[in-house]
Specification:
Shape: globular
Radius of gyration: 16 Å
Strand content: 35-45%
Helix content: 25-40%
Order of helices and strands: EEHHEEEEEH
Number of helices: 3
Length: 154
């Protein structure tokens, strides 16, 4: 059985996604906004596998920084090829730059070896509308994956 959260290999997070009817538009291809949902799941599951279960992280940090959240600050996205109902896709998430309060991630939605969507996503850690440092254990784990992924470019 496949792990619903995906897996981290070589500093990259891989998560399978099956395309359902509800993900498609009237022409039978994946509606563009649904790729954002797939990538959000990839980012969330990547953090979960690094030990940052969002619920537990928020509870732990509540006293220090009430309302701690990861928010998308910027996204650059290219839609290259369409996916269709019943396709099995893979969302690949790679940390490219880890700073004190933000992360730049590269994400790809793949069908086999074929890249369908590419995105660069800047995610900021905020609380009370202000930037907050990413919890140190999480920052260390992401930097280790960044270094690992950089050493095995594909």
């Amino acid at each position: 059985m496949t792990n619903l959260d995906g897996e981290i290999r070589g500093g990259r997070h891989f998560m399978p996604v099956r395309v359902y009817y509800e993900d498609t538009d009237f022409s039978g291809i994946v509606y563009h906004a649904n790729y954002l949902r797939f990538m959000e799941r990839g980012r969330t599951n990547y953090l979960r596998l690094l030990g940052a279960d969002h619920g537990a992280l928020f509870a732990q940090m509540h006293s220090e920084a009430p309302g701690l959240a990861f928010v998308v600050r910027a996204m650059q996205i290219e839609f290259l090829k369409p996916a269709r109902m019943d396709n099995v896709l893979e969302v690949v998430t790679v940390p490219q730059e880890v700073k004190g309060a933000s992360i730049m991630l590269r994400q790809r939605v793949m069908r086999g070896e074929e890249t369908l969507v590419e995105a660069r996503v800047r995610v900021a850690c905020v609380s009370g509308g202000r930037a907050r440092p990413i919890p140190k254990p999480l920052r260390i784990a992401m930097r280790a994956d960044q270094d690992l992924a950089a050493g095995s470019q594909t």
